[in-house]
Design goal:
7 helices, CheY-like_superfamily, alpha/beta, OB fold (Dihydrolipoamide Acetyltransferase, E2P), 256 residues, DNA-binding, Rossmann fold, 2 domains, Response regulator transcription factor, 5-stranded parallel beta sheet, elongated
């Protein structure tokens, strides 16, 4: 089915290959002629695909390695896309999706449920675009488990010693091979933890991923600017460090 004279463009992001393939097959049956411009296996690839293809619709798994479906949804909405989440959350958590007025497909996805989602999408694509940023933010807040433990202190190696670093001392985290550097005003230390696992324990309102391997504490940011080659980067308060911002994460700074 086409929208106007052109096929509707769709992005699918699902980290499990069998589930991704199954959704693509079901989508082809439910929405003949739809143009799947990208089928991504993680959140970073999905963000890059949104920048490159600007799809009209994004089917996003909530939990993906690297960047969550919620972060991808923020970028998708900013580019004007309609979002449908695929989720294995339980019935209690699914109420959050209903309250957020964003469509969702419970896993395992049933063809009849996908048909309903497609009908709603086709109707929305014929309407004026609506700003749904608030819906995504509210959804993230509702889905966060009550009492979820966030990182407050980090035990990091610095030479022959171990530093105890308060989370508010951190300027940014940067992935380096099998380690992550923890950068503070007093210097650098290292931890053995994948950056995607680190992100799970950080407050998403305070720490933003700005590059595949870089996470910055927002209050430490002074400004975002372009260099002589036209590439965006961050300057930190009281620091000479320049941290590149990839196109996939630039949406975070628009309107600031």
């Amino acid at each position: 089915m086409t929208h106007g004279t052109k096929a509707v463009t769709v992005l699918v992001a699902e980290d499990e290959a069998p589930q991704r393939a199954e959704l693509l097959d079901m989508l082809e049956a439910a929405w003949p002629g739809v143009d799947v411009v990208a089928a991504c296996e993680d959140g970073v690839a999905a963000l890059q695909a949104i920048v490159e293809h600007r799809p009209q619709v994004a089917f996003l798994d909530i939990r993906m390695p690297g960047v969550s479906g919620l972060d991808v949804a923020t970028a998708a909405v900013a580019s004007g896309a309609q979002v449908v989440f695929t989720t294995a959350y339980d019935e209690y958590a699914i109420r959050a999706f209903e309250a957020g007025a964003i469509d969702y497909l419970p896993k395992p996805i049933q063809p009849a449920r996908l048909d309903q989602a497609v009908q709603r999408l086709r109707a929305r694509l014929g309407e004026p675009a609506h700003d749904r940023h608030v819906d995504v933010a509210a959804l993230e807040a509702r889905l966060r488990p009550a009492g979820e433990r966030l990182i407050r202190w980090i035990s990091a190696s610095a030479g022959d010693s171990v530093r105890m670093i308060g989370i508010d001392e951190v300027l940014y985290f940067q992935a380096r091979d099998k380690y992550v550097s923890v950068v503070t005003r007093e210097g650098e230390a290292t931890i053995r933890m994948p950056i995607k696992d680190l992100l799970a324990g950080l407050d998403p309102d305070t720490f933003w991923q700005v590059h595949r391997g870089t996470v910055v504490r927002v209050p430490a940011i002074d400004r975002v600017q372009k260099d002589e080659l036209g590439k965006h980067g961050i300057r930190l308060r009281g620091s000479d460090d320049w941290l590149p911002v990839s196109a996939a994460f630039l949406h975070r700074f628009r309107g600031m």
